[in-house]
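Changelog-adjacent note: as of this version, every example in the card shows the full chain rather than a window. The one below runs 345 residues end to end.
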Amino acid sequence: MKKHRQSMEKRFKSSKAPMWLPYLQSIEHVTGDTFRFTYNGGVEETSLKSISSIMLYGEYGQLDTRLIEQICLSGVPIVIHKRNIPSPIIISSGTRRDQRNTLEMQIIKRANGHSQRHIVRKILAAKFYSMRWLCPELPSLDKQMSIKEMRLIEAHYSKKYWASYFKELGLKGLSRRSDGKVKNALDAASKFLSGLLLRWITYHHLSPFHGFLHQGTDYPSLVYDLIEPYRGEFDRIALGALLSINDPNNNTASIGIVINEIKKALDEHVYTGLTRQIVTRHELFHGVVLALKSYLMENTRRFMVPTIDKPNGGRPRKIPFRLYGRQAGRTDFWKEARLVSGDLE
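Full-length structure tokens:
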């Protein structure tokens, strides 16, 4: 049992991590799959096996397209984000052969009104749940509601949420759309997290451009669908980072501090009640893709989103997938689960 626990802890520590490269200057191939990235603020030399995604922020120099190709073919997507570009530029290896034809099932479910409403309702319910730290009165979503009605409820709740958020920052009267360092930092954080989901979406043969809540096909709408259940959690982390900034006018510093805090938080352990496991926040992003695919392929009757919870009793659910993480067994699992979820209400 001790060896099992040590192997799991090693697995957590050795998991792939996202990379943020502000104002990239150069990429060099060192040896094998090891690359050296020189950016504004430092140099990073690492194996592609340890990277889950890369976000390039701001301007960058002339890059060797052969190296970009090698990085993407290894399964590491690249997201390019600039403040003056509303949608990120995405470079990935594209689709691979899929015997189960996952994409066809995704399109069929997307065209089915009942299935689409079900997925949207589950996404929004999880989103509201993650925002309860700031707005504890959660709206209800009836099964018969149209997507338009659910979006209206989301808009009303989000308006209240962001009013409280900016009040916490001492910026009462501003909104999520207000220009400034807060908007820029939150936008950059969203693009940073999108790279993680993009990796798992393409890995599991789904189309990132065919979403359910966000329906446009000219941007990775499914990526932004699956970020929604965790937005509140990462907003909370960003709030703490923003409150720690001494220079309120330093836009670049605010983005760097927020993303660095989010990077650290991705490796922190949390408890998810869906599969009764202790996982990293990073693994939740893989888990939500697994959950969606399970529903699309009709392995489960419902789309069940893995959320951050407090451990409680009751009969465990029958789930046909597992996240990478520790699960209940003959250890001090429940004690640890209560500890990692200690700050949840």
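Structural remarks: The radius of gyration is 20 Å.
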